Amino acid sequence: MAKQTILGRIAQLLKANVNALIDAAEDPQVMLDQLVRDFDNNIADAEQAIAQTIGNLRMAEQDYDEDVAAAKDWGQKAAAASAKADELRAAGDTANADKFDNLAKVALGRQIDAENEAKAAEPSIATQRDAVEKLKAGLNAMKEKRQDLVSKRDELVARAKTAQAQNQVADALQSINVMDPSSDLGRFEDKVRRQEALAQGKQELAASSLDAQFESLDRDEDEAEVEARLAALKTGSAPKAIAG
User: SS3 string of 197-211?
Assistant: First the structure.
């Protein structure tokens, strides 16, 4: 995957407005979970792209160093050949002097080629170094935002569960209103009160009936005493009245 594409995807994720996404989501937790997975996938892609870019950069730097070293080596060879040519020419050996001058020219040509290759590689190396730094910075920023996203997701999930529990408790409390006579509990209380009143009425009724029986018994005893005294009067054996 091209590093430009990775940089574009990193930038898109970093610009994402999480709050707006949450507001627009039908299920925020599902949306946040998916967003975390997107970050994980892009972080993995970015790490692979960075590793590849760094690998290419190191190869380019190695080639550049080799070209610089080669240019230096060919320069030393050219200098040595030129010095040898001067020495031979001073000794009168013109043929061999020309031979070494030609070798010096060949070495100088090789030096120029190596220098040109190194010089041509410098812009590419600079571009790759800049890309590596941008990718590293984007990767670090994406990891930080992912962590913030995970923390926010966990906080929102905990808050959602708390709110759900609070709503359930509130609904339960609202459905059980002990002061409402129309509620099941109120109707049950009325039924209990009616049963208690009925029991009290039966008790009072039973007590009233018992009192009436005792009053009837007392009346029967008084009548019997009257009859006994009347019989005594007739036979002349009536008891004397109690002195006052």
Answer: HHHHHHHHHHHHHHH
User: What CATH number matches the domain at 3-175, 1.10.12, 1.10.287, 3.30.390, 2.60.120?
Assistant: 1.10.287
pTM: 0.54
Q: What φ, ψ does residue 200 adopt, rounded to 5°?
A: -65, -40
Q: How far is CA 82 from CA 86, 92, 99, 109, in A?
A: 6, 15, 10, 13
Q: Do 6 and 135 form a contact (C-beta atoms < 8 A)?
A: yes
CA distance 136 to 142: 10
DSSP letter, residue 239: P
DSSP state of 52: H
125: Cα separation from own chain's centroid: 41
Cα separation of 120 and 140, whole Å? 32
What residue type is assigned to position 45 of the chain?
Answer: D
d(CA 192, CA 200): 12
Number of alpha carbons in the 13 Å side-chain half-sphere of residue 197: 6
Q: Chunk the chain into consecutive blocks of 10 residues (it has 244) and report each block's average pLDDT, rounded to whole numbers.
A: 58 62 65 82 87 93 96 96 95 95 96 96 94 88 85 78 81 63 66 84 76 71 76 72 53
